[in-house]
Design goal:
Elements: H1 6-24, H2 27-56, H3 67-71, H4 75-92
Helix pairs in contact: 1-2, 2-4
C-alpha cells in the first residue's frame, strides 16, 4: 500500500482496538461508545457552524467583522470564523486551496 499511514492504521486495528474493546467491556460496547462520541462531535460541529454563521451575519457592509463580536465567541467558533474568512480571501485572490489558519 502506498499510503504512508497504512502501517499505523493497521497497528491501531490490531493492537489498540482490542485493548479499547477490553476496557469497554467488549466490541459492541466499544462501538456504542464510539457511536455516541461521533454523535457528540456531529452535534458540536453543527453548533459551531451555526454560531459562526451568526457571527458572520453581523459583518459590516464593508465585510469587516467587529472585533468585539469575534472576541465574544468561544474558541471553536473563533477558529471556524477565521477558517471561513481565510477561505473567502483565498478564493477572492484565486487561490482556493492555498490558505492556512494555525
Amino acid at each position: 500500500n502506498s499510503d504512508a499511514s497504512y502501517g499505523l492504521r493497521n497497528a491501531a486495528r490490531l493492537e489498540a482496538a482490542p485493548a479499547l474493546a477490553s476496557l469497554c467491556g467488549g466490541d459492541a460496547r466499544l462501538r456504542a461508545r464510539l457511536d455516541a462520541l461521533r454523535g457528540q462531535a456531529e452535534s458540536l460541529g453543527e453548533w459551531v457552524a451555526a454560531e459562526a454563521d451568526a457571527r458572520l451575519s453581523r459583518r459590516r457592509a464593508s465585510g469587516e467583522l467587529p472585533l468585539e463580536i469575534y472576541r465574544a465567541a468561544p474558541e471553536p467558533v473563533r477558529h471556524e470564523v477565521l477558517q471561513r474568512l481565510a477561505l473567502a480571501a483565498a478564493r477572492a485572490a484565486g487561490h482556493a486551496d492555498a490558505y492556512a489558519v494555525p
